[in-house]
Amino acid sequence: MRISPDSRHQAVNGCRLACVVLWALILVACGGDSPTAAVDKPSTELPSTPPEVSPTPPEVKPPTTPPEVPPISTLPLGGLKADCLGPNCGSLANDTYAGGGVGIWKVSNSSNKAVAVPLSIRGLSGQDVTLVFTNTTLTSQPMTPITLTPSVPRSSVLRSMQQTRTSQGIRPVPSEISEFNRVGAPALLRKSSFAPSRRALQRAIPPSIGASRQWYVHVEAMETRQATLVRSATRDGMTVNIWLEDGEAGDNKISAAVLDGIMSRFFTNSNAVYHRATAMVGQPWGAHEFDDLIQTEQPLDIVLVNFDRDQQPYGLMGYFWSYNNFKVTPSTPESNESLSVYLDTETIYRTPGDIGLNTQYNTLAHEFMHMVNFYQRGVLLDNTFETWLEETSALMLEDVLSDILTPGYSPIRDGRFPDYLNQSGFNCNLIDWDFDPSSNCFGYSIGGSFGAYLLRHYGIGFYQNLLRGNNSVDGFVILDKAIRDAGGPGTVEAIRRAALNAALLPASGSPAGFGMPPRTENGITLYAIDGPAYILDRVLPTSVPAELVPLGSFPVVRPAVYGTYTETVSVPPGTTLSIVVR
User: Fold this and answer.
1) Per-residue DSSP letters for 248-298?
2) What is the rounded (10 degree) CA torsion for 574, 471, 467, 370?
3) In this structure, which of 154, 426, 430, 563 has its CB flanked by the most CB atoms within 10 Å?
4) pLDDT per position as a tens digit, 544-560
């Protein structure tokens, strides 16, 4: 589902937590000389001179417990270490900015107590200094007080008029759909009878243009809608049909040109989404051994319906529901017995220009990824992704295909990333997916931005390996292996580096491993996402949270610093503090 409600991510089991904590410890072990225990009230004074011994023996007192760490004043440069190398790296030394490029430093606290760390970076001439605290564990950590610099009032209007936070007008997909795709369908398959004799391809009888049929559509509850087959095309053995709800056709609604555009961009054009996507991520349906599933060779049905009938765009925008991949049985009595995706019509014709159409083109790509994942992972691997990774993978396909599907408009660059900056929450847990469109931790903006970072640094091969990863049932572990196989540092470190985009890192002037540069690979162009262009979109937090949520980050900006930046900050336990100068 592109937008769908779900219960919160279930509690992480002990094995996962142990593994992630181990990764975090390994990462911080490579990151610097941070202390291993708390110094609640550090002192920079030298010990006083011991008193002279008097003739009267002093009172004997119990020995005091030695401190767990040396005094904070003995820590070299507060534990800061340069965190970038090569071109564009402005970290000349552990305490010096080179005067150009992007300087990045970090200090990690692997202890179970907050640690006060004095920071000192010299050589600044008006650059902003951004501090980003990132919780590198899967447990919440108490956030320590820090002074927030008042933000310069900025417009809350997003830079892109393509998607001025349309998430505010989106109604989440019914939870029955997301829960069935994630849990219900796999459970039914495990109980399904096998039919080895049906493994050979079976072809459904194709309907003709003008044919009419009733479709079950889930809006608030299950409804029926009558629709007519208005377009059909066959290529390379696959047929794609477009069905339009009766009453939704017309020049001021869904016109012939709109229908032709959907068919062309999705299927009939040689460079269309279906062909590019299947070559990269796999087929949406095929041979299987389950008697309860629809036939093994099916047309793909795009069903255009007016979901809400409220004379407004957005609302419920679209969905893929694996329920329809099952035959009608007592468990699935209202199945459409169809390989199908459902899109809202009003979003297309009740928005100015091509905004709604572009939005629904990307919804189609998003739901297509869910369709492919159900077959490739749910049916063939019996290993469906958890919600956060399922949705992130679909957002990544939107990103990958945007250069051919909606040239000049990127749903991540022009919608998800500015929305992430505009939410002003930042302290959000990626794997605890939030479906609430009005939330400061709206999962689609966070997941889309993180997925964009991963694609631009690790590429299409990484994405393909991620989609077929089967080394664990834990999505965090699957993603970690895919990143490491692509030469990256793993999931925890990738989350930390991606969080530094809150500092508005430039696309073409950031050190290796940071920012979101453009990438062209195998004929696919991933647009650059240039941080400084989003200065009017970023809304910084106005209060310090009581806790850093698992994997959450919190940015603090010190604007226009000259000379030497100095500050003593308290780093929470299990947290890495990153400092960005640009």
Assistant:
1) -BSTTSB-HHHHHHHHIIIIISTT-HHHHHHHHH--SS----BTTBPPSB-
2) -90
3) 430
4) 999 999 999 999 999 99
